[in-house]
């Protein structure tokens, strides 16, 4: 039994079963043993690969979109370029490099990274050591300075903890993590029925509630309405709120049991984009999309970008560019292709004109 499992088991023995939300946030964010706190999980030797790590084309197109969004807001200065959950810092590095073609944008912005993991912050500092603009770090969006904000969040929302409710004869009851007779972690159900959930559903159905993500979305949308700007959210998820459990644990590119080794596997849930859009609109913000990642990147010209990179490439590099293009915008195999599974949604100040990438 690893140290985090022992700690969680002791907490449950003392306080009773805990919500999935609490369990997930301990697995990912426990200051000592949390998944992101101790390691760099990205890349072929790690647990999963993200779009910015696949190809520079991703970050370059996101960068072009961001400077265009800034221009569409009337080129405010000063403005903030903020990334939430920057991983290795690769996306921000590509965004800042491509922004050299928009010197007025670079001049106007200050760069802020919001990261809870000390280990990843060190990696980000190294990646951005020679960037066109110095970055500042914080652990919370609320600590970034005021002003119009252009915010990026790639694969951040899927890492926010969710709650599950299971339909029983008595009503919806919360799924909890408890202990069995041999002291192993097991899923169980709360004794109490959740009075706020009344949706009709077959017994055994599961509702996943991403209250943490919705709160964060509300906070960001309120800020964008007040101070101007936009957030670009890219993540895997579904377009309509639906029943079902999307919790998954991934270790070394394989699915594993989420209760087996807490803190050692990446725990995520699909993002409920419809719920985020409702939270944003409730604050008066404008919502663009969600569209698929394939739609977004193709509309921003990823094909032309790939062709222009290939002009200067060796045959091996050309093959790498073709493979990366296929992974980013391909749609057939959800285990390999990100084009359909991943969605892109922008939330902006209500006066923002419709932006490229989202035109359908
Ligand atoms: N955007 C990166 C990394 C995605 S993984 C990429 O695409 O490669 C999730 C990232 O979010 C990690 O950097 C993790 O440490 C960070 N993170 C997780 N929870 C967070 C939170 N509540 N606030 C800020 N960052 C968080």
The largest pleated sheet is described as: 8 strands, mixed
Query: How many strands appear in the DSSP assignment?
Result: 16
Which class do the helix and strand fractions yield? alpha/beta
Global geometry: globular
Poorly predicted segments: none
How far do the termini sit from each other? 51 Å
Query: What's the SSE pattern?
Result: HEHHHHEHHEHEEEEEEHEEEEEHEHHHE
Strand residue percentage: 15-25%
Q: What Rg do the Cα atoms give?
A: 21 Å
Characteristic terms for this protein:
360 residues; alpha/beta; eight-stranded mixed β-sheet; five-stranded antiparallel β-sheet; globular; binds S-adenosyl-L-homocysteine
Model description:
This protein is an alpha/beta fold. The protein has 13 helices and 16 strands. The strands form three sheets. Strands 2, 3, 4, 5, 10, 14, 15 and 16 form an eight-stranded mixed β-sheet that branches. Strands 1, 6, 7, 8 and 9 form a five-stranded antiparallel β-sheet that branches. It has a three-stranded antiparallel β-sheet with strand order 12-11-13. A hairpin with a 2-residue loop joins strand 6 (163-168) and strand 7. Helix 12 (302-311) runs antiparallel to helix 13. The chain is globular and about 60 Å long. The protein starts with a helix and ends in a 12-residue tail after the last strand.
